[in-house]
Design brief:
Chain lengths: 325, 728
C-alpha cells in the first residue's frame, strides 16, 4: 500500500474542501481499501465521509430518495424500498455477501470498479488502470467480460447489481461539488469505455454522489431481479436482468428492463422494451422481443455464451415480473 | 494380571467407537482458536517475500541497495544468503529456496525482507530492483516433454507404465474418450504462517502450520546448513491442509531471516500470496479406451494420461503412480495398458491434494464406465457391478487385494437409498437458488453414480512409520495419561482419536495430548489418509507397552510409566519400471456416491439435490469424525465438479482470491445420507481403513454423470460451468 494521509470530514463542505486531485472518499471501503492493498488505487489522501449526513431513505415528491451513505443491507431491508421498488431490494440481496453489504454504501456501490483480473493485477497492462498500456483481456481470459458497449480499448463489465435495477427505473444521481448540486440520469452518469476506459463516469474531481433518486413507478411493485452466476451466493453475475412489467388483460402496457454482467455499464434494454409494448404477455412474445437485446454484441473468445444466456435471462425475468410463472 | 483392552473399555467413556467432542471444535466455530497466523512474540519483526511476476524468465540482476536503506528494515536476503543447500523438494530436490538466475513460475520467491512492520517490509520489497529477460513459458502438458527443457534432466518428471495381460486383445464393444481435469486448489482457510525464533547458540525454533514436521525440519536444516538437532519445530494451529502444506512455503525463509537478524520473525501470507505459496491439484488430460464383451465384462482398459506438475516436482512422482496404478478404478480387468506422464511446465507447481492422482483418473474412468453402459444398453450401476472388484481381485499391478473390497455392495447401498421428493417449490432448493432464476421452468432432474478407489498410506516401498510416546502417572489420586507424537493435527481430528485410543487401551479417562513437535521421533505425514492408521497404530503399540507395566494397577504412587515406540505397517514394494508390476500399496479404500441433480437446461445452472455416499472404513473409531470426513471430501468433489478451478493463462494465475476462485458454500451443498460399512482389515490397527480421501474421488464423477444424463451433453472436462450446458 502506498503512503497516504487520512482525514475524516464531518460536513459535506469540509469533505469537499479536503478533496482534490489524488484524493479519494472512503465510505465502506470494500472497494477502495481492497484496491489500495493491491496498489491499483494509490490516493495521496483518503477522506472518510462516513460521518456526513448523506443518509436517509424516504419517499418525497413522487420519488424514492436514498442517501449515498446508506448501507446496502439497510436499503435492501427497508420496508418502503421493498414495497415500492422490490427490484432494488432484490438486486442488493443478491450482491456480494452479508458482511460486505453491512459495510458497503450505495454511493460506493455505484462507484465500484470492474472485477477484470488484469485491472486488479498491477504487473499486467490495462488501459483502464494505465491508459495506453493495452488490454490483455481482449486476447486473454475474458469469460467474465462484457459483450455490449465494449471498445477495442476495454471489454470490462460494470459489476454492480443495484445499478442495473436503478437504470431500469430511470434513477438519477444527485452530484454535489463546491459549485453546488447537479442531477444526472444514472444511465448517463456512466460513460462507455471508447478510447478512454479510465474515465468511467461524469463525476468531477472531488465531486460527491449525494443521493440516488428513483421516480416512483406504481406498477413497478411487480418488479424482479434475476442473477445467473457460478454459485448460488456471493458471486458476481454472468448475466442479470432487472425487470418491471405492467400487464393489463394479458397485454404488456409498459415495461422497464436492464441487464448486468454483460455490458460496459448497467445496460438499459430499450429495444426489447419497445418490442414488448402491446404484446401478449406470454413466453413467446418475451423470447421474440429478447432477440434484440444483443444487437451489436461483440462476443470474445470465452464469453460468447453470454449472448444466448442474456436472452434466456430476459425471458425468465419477464415471466417472473409478469407473474406468468 | 494384564487386562485386555476389551475388558477395560467398559470402564471409561470416550474410547474408540464413540464420538467425544473434539477440543478445537467450539473454539473454531467461535473464532477463538489460535492459528499459526495468531502467533506473536513481543520482540518479533515481519518477513515478506519478493516474488516473480513472470512464469518463466532469466534473472539478469537483483539490486537490494535501496531496500536496505528503508528505515525499519533489518535484512534483505537473496539466494547468496542461503548458507546451506539452496534446493529442496519432497521427492526431487529441484526447488530453490530463493531463485538463482532463473524463475520457473509466477510467484517464485526471489528475495526476502525483514522489517519492523509488515507494511515497512512490503514497501522495502518494492524497492528491490530485479531485471528479467522474459522467456516464453512452457504451458502445455501434452507437449511439454518435447518443449524447452526447464530442468537439467528435461521436462519428464516421471513416466509410469503398466503392462498387464494382453496388449493387443480386441473387444466387442469399445468406447474411447479424452478427459480433462482443471487445477483445483486446497483452498484451506488459514494461510501459510509461522514464527521463527533464533537461539543464542545459532539454532532456531520454528512454530509452524504444516503437515509433516520432520520432513520440514530435514529440508530446513539442509538449507540452513545446520545439523538437524539445531532446527526444532513445533506445530502451531493449522487452518486446513488437504495436501497443500506438505511442501515448504515460508519455513526456510522465516528461519533465514531470524538467524540473520537475531530477531524472532513472523511471516503470514495473504490470500493472494497463498495461491502462489502452495502446490495445487495437478490438472490432467487423460485418454482412455475401454473394451468389453456384450455382457458388459471389461476385456481391456488402455489409457495415456498427462499430469501437469508445473515448475517443480513436489509429489508429482507419487501422483503419477497413483493415477497409473489406480487408473482402471475398482474393477477387475485382465488386460491393462497404462502410460502416465508427470511433466514440468511453467504453470503453478502442483503436488499433493486429497485423493492425489486417484481423483484425476477417477473422473476419467468413471466417465468411461457410463459411456460403456450406454454403448451396451446397460444401467450405469449394472455395468459397474458386473466388473466390481472384490476381496481377492488382482490390481493392474498384480497386487492381490487382500482385505474387504465391497465395491458392488457400496453401489447397491447408494442405489437403494430413497430418492429425494420431486422438484421443490422452494427456490433455495432449485438451480440458481436464491438468485431467483427458476420456479421449476427448464429444470430436469437426473441421477448419476460413481465409485472410486484410493490407496491408503505411503506406497512403493517407502519405509513409513510413526513414533508415539505414552506416559502414565497419578494426578489427583487417579491415573492420567499423556500422549506425545510429531503427527500433525491439521483439523482432521487426530488429537481426539489419540485420546480415544489411549482410553480404550489403558482404561484411563484423562488423556492429555502434548504439543506436536520434533523433540520426539518422526510421526510421518498427515496425508494419504494415513495418520489414524500409522500414528494410531503407534499410540496403540505404546499403550500395550505401558499396559504391561501397569499390570492392572489403578494406583502407581510416584511411579511414572513412560514408553516410546515406533510402529510400521506392513512393507510395500517398488513397482517394476517397465511393467508396473509390484505390491505397491498398503491398503485400498472405497466409496460410492449417488448424485441427484437438478439442471436448469436453459440457463446452465446446477443444483445438487442429494449426494449420498456409502464407504467402507474398516472400523469407525469416531463415527462423527468419519461422517465429517465423508461430507467434507464430498463437498470438495462437488467443488471440482461444478466450480473450483485455478484459471491460468500463459502460466499466470488469473483468479488468486476467494472472490474469484469459487468454493461451494453451504447453499451449494445438499444434506447427505451416508452409510458407513465397517468391514475390518485384519492388517490394520482395529481393522481401520483410511477415510479422508475416497469420498473426494467418487463425488465428482457422480455429479457430472447426473448432469450428462440431464443434458445429453458429453461433458468431458471438470469443472462444468453454465456455458458448457447452455449449448451456446
Ligand atoms: C467480495 C466482494 C464481492 C462483491 N460482490 C458484489 C456483487 O455481487 N454485486 C455488487 O453489486 N457488488 C459486489 N461487490 C462490490 C461491493 O458492492 C462494493 O465494493 C461496495 O458497494 C462499495 O461500497 P463502499 O461503501 O464499500 O465503497 P468504498 O470502497 O468506500 O468506495 C468505493 C469508491 O467509491 C468512491 N466513493 C464512495 N462513496 C462515494 C460518494 N458518496 N461519492 C463519490 N465517490 C464515492 C470511493 O472514493 C471509491 O473510489 C463485491 C465486493 C466484494 C469485496
Ligand atoms: S478489459 Fe478493461 S479493465 Fe480489463 S484489462 Fe482490458 S482495459 Fe483493463
Amino acid at each position: 500500500m502506498h503512503a497516504f494521509d487520512y482525514a475524516a470530514a464531518s460536513t459535506v463542505r469540509g469533505a469537499l474542501d479536503l478533496a482534490g486531485p489524488g484524493s479519494a472518499f472512503l465510505a465502506g471501503g470494500t472497494t477502495l481499501v481492497d484496491l489500495m492493498k493491491l496498489d491499483v488505487l494509490t490516493p495521496d489522501r483518503v477522506i472518510d465521509v462516513n460521518a456526513l449526513p448523506l443518509k436517509g431513505i424516504r419517499l418525497h415528491d413522487g420519488a424514492l430518495r436514498i442517501g449515498a451513505l446508506e448501507r446496502m443491507s439497510d436499503v435492501a431491508a427497508h420496508p418502503v424500498v421493498r414495497s415500492v421498488h422490490p427490484v432494488i431490494s432484490k438486486a442488493l440481496l443478491l450482491s456480494a455477501s452479508g458482511q460486505v453489504r453491512n459495510m458497503a454504501s450505495i454511493g460506493g456501490n455505484l462507484m465500484q470498479r470492474t472485477r477484470c483480473d488484469y485491472f486488479r493485477d498491477v504487473t499486467s497492462a490495462c488501459n483502464k488502470r494505465r491508459p495506453g498500456s493495452g488490454c490483455p483481456a481482449l486476447t486473454g481470459v475474458n469469460r467474465n467480460h462484457a459483450v455490449l458497449g465494449t471498445s477495442d480499448s476495454c471489454v470490462a463489465t460494470h459489476a454492480s447489481d443495484v445499478a442495473v435495477a436503478f437504470v431500469a427505473l430511470d434513477a438519477q444521481v444527485v452530484l454535489r461539488s463546491k459549485d453546488g448540486d447537479r442531477v444526472a440520469p444514472l444511465e448517463e452518469f456512466y460513460r462507455l469505455p471508447g478510447s478512454t476506459p479510465d474515465r468511467e463516469n461524469v463525476l468531477g474531481p472531488g465531486e460527491l454522489i449525494a443521493e440516488v433518486v428513483v421516480p416512483v413507478l406504481p406498477w413497478a411493485r411487480h418488479s424482479t431481479y434475476l442473477k445467473i452466476r457460478d454459485r448460488q451466493s456471493y458471486e458476481f453475475a454472468l448475466t442479470s436482468v432487472a425487470a418491471a412489467v405492467d400487464v393489463k388483460r394479458g397485454v404488456v402496457q409498459d415495461v422497464r428492463l436492464a441487464a448486468g454482467g454483460v455490458a460496459a455499464k448497467p445496460w438499459r434494454l430499450r429495444a426489447v422494451e419497445e418490442a414488448l409494448k402491446g404484446g401478449v404477455a406470454i413466453e413467446r412474445t418475451f423470447a421474440e422481443a429478447a432477440e434484440s437485446a444483443v444487437d451489436g454484441a461483440r462476443p470474445l473468445a470465452h464469453n460468447a455464451f453470454k449472448t444466448a444466456l442474456l436472452k434466456r435471462t430476459i425471458v425468465r425475468a419477464l415471466l417472473d415480473a409478469a407473474g406468468a410463472r | 494380571m494384564t487386562l485386555t483392552p476389551a475388558e477395560l473399555t467398559s470402564a471409561v467413556s470416550g474410547g474408540i467407537g464413540t464420538s467425544p467432542q473434539r477440543p478445537d471444535g467450539n473454539l473454531k466455530v467461535r473464532g477463538e482458536f489460535a492459528y499459526a497466523s495468531d502467533l506473536w512474540h513481543e520482540d518479533m519483526i515481519w518477513g515478506a517475500t519478493l516474488r516473480s511476476p513472470h512464469p518463466y524468465a532469466r534473472i539478469t540482476s537483483v539490486d537490494i541497495t535501496e531496500a536496505l536503506k528503508v528505515p525499519g528494515v533489518y535484512a534483505v536476503l537473496t539466494a547468496d544468503d542461503v548458507p546451506g543447500r539452496n534446493l529442496y523438494g519432497l521427492e526431487h530436490k529441484d526447488q530453490p529456496v530463493l531463485a538463482v538466475d532463473v524463475v520457473r513460475y509466477q510467484g517464485e520467491p526471489i528475495a526476502l525482507v525483514g522489517a519492523d512492520h509488515p507494511e515497512t517490509a512490503l514497501r522495502a520489497m518494492k524497492k528491490i530492483v530485479v531485471t528479467y529477460e522474459v522467456l516464453e513459458p512452457v504451458v502445455d502438458m501434452e507437449t511439454a516433454v518435447d518443449d524447452t527443457p526447464l530442468h537439467p534432466g528435461g521436462n519428464l518428471v516421471r513416466h509410469v507404465p503398466i503392462r498387464r495381460g494382453s496388449q493387443d486383445v480386441t473387444a466387442e464393444v469399445v468406447v474411447t474418450g479424452r478427459y480433462e481435469v482443471g487445477m483445483q486448489d486446497q483452498a484451506f482457510l488459514g494461510p501459510e504462517s509461522g514464527l521463527a525464533v533464533p537461539a543464542s547458540d545459532g539454532s532456531v525454533d520454528l512454530y509452524i502450520a504444516t503437515q509433516w514436521l520432520h520432513v520440514d525440519r530435514d529440508q530446513i536444516a539442509a538449507a540452513l546448513g545446520l545439523p538437524q538437532e539445531q532446527v526444532r519445530l513445533t506445530l502451531s494451529g493449522v487452518g486446513g491442509a488437504f495436501g497443500g502444506r506438505e511442501d515448504l512455503s515460508m519455513q526456510v525463509h522465516a528461519c533465514l531471516l531470524a538467524l540473520h537478524t537475531g530477531k524472532p520473525v513472523k511471516m503470514v501470507y495473504n490470500r493472494e500470496e497463498s495461491f502462489y505459496g502452495h502446490v495445487h491439484r495437478h490438472p490432467a488430460v487423460l485418454y482412455y479406451e475401454h473394451g468389453a464383451d456384450h455382457t458388459g465384462k471389461l476385456v481391456y482398459v488402455r489409457t495415456r494420461m498427462y499430469l501437469d506438475g508445473g515448475a517443480y516436482a513436489s509429489s508429482t512422482p507419487a501422483v503419477v503412480a497413483n493415477a497409473a496404478t489406480l487408473g482402471v478404478g475398482p474393477y477387475e480387468v485382465d488386460n491393462v495398458t497404462v502410460d502416465a506422464y508427470g511433466v514440468y511446465t511453467n504453470n503453478p507447481p502442483c503436488g499433493a491434494m486429497r485423493g492425489f492422482g486417484a481423483v484425476q483418473a477417477g473422473f476419467a474412468y468413471e466417465s468411461q464406465m457410463d459411456k460403456l453402459a450406454e454403448a451396451l444398453g446397460m444401467s450405469p450401476v449394472d455395468v459397474r457391478v458386473r466388473n466390481a472388484m472384490t476381496e481377492g481381485s488382482v490390481m493392474p499391478t498384480g497386487q492381490v487385494v487382500d482385505s474387504a473390497a465391497p465395491v458392488a455392495q457400496l453401489l447397491k447401498l447408494v442405489q437403494d437409498k430413497p430418492l429425494p421428493a420431486g422438484t421443490s417449490s422452494d427456490i433455495r432448493e432449485l438451480p440458481g437458488g436464491v438468485s431467483n432464476t427458476t420456479h421449476g421452468e427448464g429444470v430436469v432432474r437426473r441421477v448419476g453414480y460413481a465409485v472410486g478407489i484410493k490407496n491408503i498410506c505411503f506406497s512403493e516401498g517407502y519405509d513409513d512409520y510413526s513414533t508415539a510416546r505414552v506416559r502414565v502417572s497419578m494426578v489427583n489420586g487417579s491415573l492420567s495419561a499423556a500422549v506425545h507424537t510429531a503427527a500433525c493435527e491439521v483439523g482432521q481430528g487426530l488429537v481426539t482419536i489419540m485420546q480415544q485410543i489411549v482410553r480404550t487401551e489403558l482404561g484411563i479417562e484423562r488423556v492429555t495430548v502434548l504439543p506436536m513437535d520434533t523433540t520426539i521421533g518422526n510421526g510421518g505425514s498427515t496425508s494419504a489418509s494415513r495418520q489414524t492408521y500409522v500414528t494410531g497404530g503407534a499410540v496403540k503399540a505404546a499403550c500395550a507397552l505401558v499396559r504391561d507395566k501397569l499390570a492392572g494397577r489403578t494406583d502407581i504412587g510416584d511411579e511414572v510409566i513412560d514408553e516410546t515406540t515406533e510402529w510400521r505397517h506392513r512393507a510395500t514394494e517398488a513397482i517394476d519400471p517397465v511393467t508396473g508390476q509390484g505390491n505397491a500399496h498398503v491398503q485400498y479404500g472405497f466409496a460410492a456416491h449417488r448424485a441427484v441433480v437438478d439442471v436448469d437446461v436453459d440457463l446452465g445452472l446446477v443444483r445438487v439435490v442429494a449426494l449420498d455416499c456409502a464407504q467402507d472404513v474398516g472400523k469407525a473409531l469416531n463415527p462423527q469424525a468419519v461422517v465429517g470426513q465423508i461430507q467434507g471430501g464430498s463437498a470438495q468433489g462437488l467443488g471440482l465438479a461444478v466450480m473450483e478451478e485455478i484459471q491460468t493463462s500463459g502460466g499466470k494465475v488469473r483468479n488468486p482470491s476467494f472472490t474469484d476462485y469459487l468454493i461451494p458454500t453451504v447453499l451449494d451443498m445438499p444434506p447427505m445420507s451416508i452409510d458407513v460399512l465397517e468391514l475390518a482389515d485384519p492388517h490394520a490397527p482395529y481393522g481401520i481403513r483410511g477415510v479422508g480421501e475416497p469420498p473426494t474421488i467418487s463425488s465428482t464423477p457422480a455429479i457430472v454423470a447426473a448432469i450428462r444424463a440431464a443434458t445429453g451433453l458429453a461433458l468431458t472436462r471438470v469443472p462444468v460451468r453454465p456455458e458448457h450446458l447452455t449449448g451456446t
